[in-house]
Design goal:
Elements: H1 5-19, E1 28-30, E2 38-40, H2 52-63, H3 69-77, H4 82-88, E3 99-102, E4 153-154
Parallel strand pairs: 1-3
Antiparallel strand pairs: 1-2, 3-4
Length: 170
């Protein structure tokens, strides 16, 4: 992980709770690459209990032959299939629970310099605090600099007034 990763994740989760339209519930937050770069919401505490993690594990077992697991994660929490849409209670083309993209990469990629979707000679894995934009991560989970230039989370909602995270000085 990068320095202050937990502080960055805490900031992102707090912001996602504030911006979620479903009572603080969100589907996921992308803060780095691969499966170690996702925060999924599993309920509990003051929120209703639901089992996103268990349902996602079942999804991986069922569909793992089709795509790499980190791609299935995006497909799942972006509710791109009927199975995922049913779990998240998707309504038409509207995501029932939002997917957020945090602006900064907060973890080193566990796969080193390898990628499951890109020619390695043409790709370098972003380092700590690099902005996570498309095509580094899928568009549905990427921070969007055009839509959110003054925010650290996509989708952005400046009306909520939550401050931007400060990158720690190295």
């Amino acid at each position: 992980f990068c320095g202050a990763t937990l502080a960055g994740i805490h900031h992102a989760v707090t912001k996602a709770h504030a911006r979620s339209t479903e009572g603080g519930r969100f589907a996921a937050i992308r803060f780095s690459f691969g499966l170690n770069g996702i925060v999924m919401h599993n309920g509990g505490g003051s929120l209703p209990k639901y089992d996103d993690i268990g349902a996602f594990a079942s999804y991986l077992r069922r569909y793992g032959h089709r795509r790499p697991p980190d791609h299935l994660a995006t497909e799942y929490f972006a509710q791109e299939t009927s199975v995922a849409g049913t779990h998240f209670q998707k309504r038409g083309s509207t995501l029932s629970r939002r997917v957020f993209g945090f602006r900064y990469n907060l973890a080193n990629h566990l796969g080193g310099q390898q990628s499951t979707i890109r020619d390695e000679s043409a790709w370098s894995m972003p380092t700590c605090y690099t902005e996570l934009t498309s095509p580094q991560v899928f568009e549905v989970e990427a921070w969007n600099p055009t839509e959110c230039p003054n925010d650290d989370m996509w989708p952005c909602d400046t009306a909520k007034g939550y401050p931007r995270w400060s990158i720690p000085k190295h």
